[in-house]
Design goal:
Length: 212
């Protein structure tokens, strides 16, 4: 299902009908200096999509987009870049102890691990660090690359991806966060972090924007 994107002329028709309805197709055409025949496909689309109602011998009037459709359209237009957070990255050689400190300091639940070229190589979650901490090991001497989940097993997304697709990845892989990456010829640069909290924010913004 894809949202209906109105073209410029269809937007103009909507404005005319909003301000002047009920109004006949002839009158709309006159205002736009077009023929009735030229407008026919646009009027058909606007009527079928529920923006306009047409009554025989009366003309077109604005019905307003149905809330359900408007919510669906907004949801399908939500992009990762509109809701992503700043990523927290650490280098592969820092110790598990330092990674734990970093997690507390930055107040995040997932750290992304990068190599010397700043390309993504791993992910560290809270439980990865906890698991290592309950062993009888010196956390200062274990580098994070030993315990992280590593490429190519990392689920990630791009900033232009739809938020729904990103949410699907979080659920399917049972993880809390996705790195938002920019693809380079020899690796992925981490440019953002998309978490379940971001998805919850998006959900709330839908409710706010549509007065739900
Ligand atoms: P936690 O383990 O704290 O509940 P997650 O559910 O995010 O947090 O992580 C579960 C496991 O999945 C961990 O081992 C973690 O390294 C791994 N993981 C987390 N994020 C990703 C990701 N984007 N891609 C692949 N694996 C991930």
């Amino acid at each position: 299902m894809s949202p209906i994107e109105l073209n410029k002329r269809q937007e103009e028709i909507l404005e005319i009908v909003k301000g002047n309805g009920p109004i006949t197709g002839e009158q709309i055409a006159e205002r736009l200096s077009l023929t009735r025949a030229t407008l026919r496909p646009d009027l058909a689309i606007l009527t079928m999509a529920g923006y306009l109602d047409a009554r025989p011998r009366v003309g077109y009037f604005y019905s307003g987009k149905k809330t359900g459709q408007a919510v669906i359209d907004s949801m399908m237009n939500m992009k990762v870049k509109d809701f992503q957070s700043i990523p927290v990255v650490v280098s592969e050689n820092i110790s598990v102890y330092d990674a734990i400190c970093q997690m507390f300091l930055e107040d995040v639940g997932t750290l992304f691990v990068v190599d010397k070229n700043a390309y993504l190589t791993g992910v560290l979650s809270r439980k990865d660090l906890l698991r290592t901490s309950i062993g009888n090991q010196d956390l200062n001497h274990i580098p994070v690359h030993i315990i992280m989940t590593r490429m190519p097993n990392i689920a990630f997304c791009m900033k232009t991806d739809g938020l729904i697709q990103a949410a699907q990845k979080l659920i399917e892989r049972q993880i809390d966060a996705l790195p938002v990456v920019l693809e380079h010829p020899d690796g992925y640069e981490v440019i953002g972090r998309l978490t379940k909290t971001n998805i919850t924010r998006a959900f709330l913004s839908l409710a706010d924007n549509h007065d739900l």
